[in-house]
Amino acid sequence: MSAIHGIDGLDDWELVVGLEVHCELATATKLFCGCPNQFGDDPNTNVCPVCLGLPGSLPVLNHQAVELAMRIGRALNCTVHPSVFARKNYFYPDMPKDYQVSQYDQPINADGWLDLPDGSRIGITRAHLEEDTGKNTHAGGSGRIHGADYSLIDYNRAGVPLVEIVSEPDVRSPEQARTYVAELRTILLAIGASDAKMEEGSMRVDANVSVRPHGQAAFGTRCEIKNLNSLRSLVRAIEYEARRQVDLLGTGERIHQETRHWDEEAGRTRAGRSKEEAEDYRYFQEPDLVPVAPGADWLARVEAALPVLPAARRETLAGAAGLAATHPGVVMAVDRGLDDLARGAIAAGADPVRVLTHVEHNLAVEGAETLGAAALAELVGMETGGALTATQAKTVLADMVATGRGPAEIAAERGFEAMDTGALEAIVDEAIAANASEWADYVAASAAGDDKRLKKLTGFFTGKIMQASKGQADGRAVNELLTRKRDGAA
Amino acid sequence: MSDAPPPVALTRDEVAHVAALAKLAVTPEELDTYTGQLAAILDHAADIAGLDLDGVAPTAHPLPLVNVLRADEVRATLDRDEVLAAAPATEDHRFRVPAILGEEP
pLDDT tens digits for chain A (490 residues)? Predict the structure, then answer.
């Protein structure tokens, strides 16, 4: 009996997901013309006869776009092939030419894979080059496509280089889909191929979702889910869609192969057009462009210039820290590009777990990469040596990032000193005396094993003691003292 | 491929379908004419399908060229006012187009 992993109540069903990720390439110019590739510029300022599809204009391929596409291909273990461009014909005002130049039967990259931090492997079918479309804003009516009175179009994005990365249908849970996209994003950033911002649309994800009875070899009918603007949307949409399909099949209905749009606010997917009739794009080879066939020397240069990829960096850091490569602190350190810093601090003798705790929880800030490994090691040393509490260390670390000064100087200036045990005990005793009925309650809850009540009362006393000590008390020491007093009182 | 199936005769319905995809309004008489003309072109292409072409790479382009590339350098763009002046309707420096009934591809 196997439920869909991560979704309650879908026993006996298996989820099958394939992902299509579009990423805008970090080039200076568009794919086929010299217009700036720049997000957020004034509408229709980055346009020319080529990207406006004016008669007589001809496309010329951007060298750097090919280079970045090859980088993506090799980072995803794909084979780089000689490739050709094709016209994808459709009538929609986001492309003034009435076709989008893409790659169809001969993509530049094919047959790769991506290993996830959890050890699973997702196949990469292909990663091909294509141009982005213009941006429509639907005006009037509801603001959505349906019911819009008219649309306004900005062609700044038309012709921006994209690589579309298509996975095999290897993903089996919403969480695995999230991990795949997050890992892909980390790789794209590491190799400098894209800024991969889902919120700005420079990385866009479509999910092909189907379900099948556990143990069935044939795939179920799939639906393509679009409009997934965040990792959270991706997870929620896949969960919703899996339930919708299982519910339909459970009542004897069939799934219609179609495009569905995720509505984040309503928390549901809605049917778009039906696939069968609309998918007739009449692809044919683009006569205005010649094939791209990168030679062995170009490919070798691209491979030699690839940086160490996140999976290998996690292994290195995990080895240095004596932790698993799947440890959240290790994953986060690589994700934030702070693994060199963490390794440096650990090499300088700092406690690995404390270092990674700071990276995971306290260094999601601008400027964290400017922090020196020696300074971080010194801070962690003060913390483990008892000179700073965890809370104080967090404050000092924030100052270090903001000002670039050393931890000892900041701690002294803020008057952070470890509170000696005698002084702390006096504060604890005062807190107990001033709140006698709560203390009696605490002792009783403890004796009764009422964990919920005990937790609440522990929080109450810790708060009082922290307040009295002006935040200088160490949380762990407070807890130990409370326990000792309770044992004495019982 | 030499083992390609023999060509299937082009039907009038297929021509009507392709015309609809290309947003072409075609009269019944024109449909008959084009079905005949297009069928003749496809028959000609079928002659090639009948040859033994194993080991012959498909021609991607008539020119013997690959890797025609340009440097990733910004070039002058068009003046926006000039561009928008050519459009039937504009609003907020954007092209204004009628309501879109279908969905984005």
Answer: 344 655 666 778 999 999 999 999 999 999 999 999 999 999 999 999 999 999 999 999 999 999 999 999 999 999 999 999 999 998 888 999 999 999 999 999 999 999 998 889 999 999 999 999 999 888 765 545 555 678 899 999 999 999 999 999 999 999 999 999 999 999 999 999 999 999 889 999 999 999 999 989 999 999 999 989 899 999 999 999 999 999 999 899 999 888 899 999 999 999 876 544 546 888 999 999 999 999 999 999 999 999 999 999 999 999 999 999 889 999 999 988 899 999 999 999 999 999 999 999 999 888 888 899 999 999 999 888 878 888 889 999 999 999 999 998 898 888 887 667 777 888 888 999 999 999 999 999 888 888 888 888 988 998 888 888 777 777 777 888 888 888 876 5
Measured CA angle at B20 (ends A226, A92), to 5 deg: 40
To the nearest whole Å, the CA of A47 is away from the closest chain B CA by: 6
- Identify the CATH number of the domain defined by range B12-49: 1.10.20
The CATH code that applies to domain A421-489 is 1.10.10
Q: What would the two tokens of residue A173 be? A: 């849970």
Task: Choose the closest CB to B100 out of A148, A281, A294.
Answer: A148
Nearest by Cα to A246 from A9, A6, A5:
A9
Please answer yes or no on whether A90 and B104 come within 8 Å at the CB atom. Answer: no
Query: Does the CB of A94 have a partner CB in chain B at under 8 Å?
Result: yes
A398 touches chain B (CB under 8 A): no
ipTM for the complex shown: 0.84
User: Is A208 within 8 Å of A17 (Cβ atoms)?
Assistant: yes
Does residue A138 sit at the B interface (CB-CB below 8 Å)?
yes
DSSP B5: P
- For residues A130 and A66, the answer to whether their CB atoms sit within 8 Å is no
> Whose structure tokens read 């609440």?
A456
Q: Say whether B67 and A294 touch across the interface (CB within 8 A).
A: yes
Note whether A106 contacts B: Cβ–Cβ < 8 A.
yes
Chain A segment 210-239 residues within 8 A of B by beta carbon are 226
Helix (H) / strand (E) containing B15:
helix B12-21
Domain ranges of chain A: 13-303, 310-414, 421-489
Query: What are the residue ranges spanned by the domains of chain B?
Result: 12-49
Q: How far is B62 from chain A (nearest CA, A)?
A: 9
What is this structure's pTM?
0.79
Q: Is B79 on the interface with A (CB under 8 A)?
A: no
Instruction: Report the chain A residue with the minimal C-alpha distance to residue B64.
Output: A290
C-alpha–C-alpha distance, residues A282 and A280, integer Å? 6
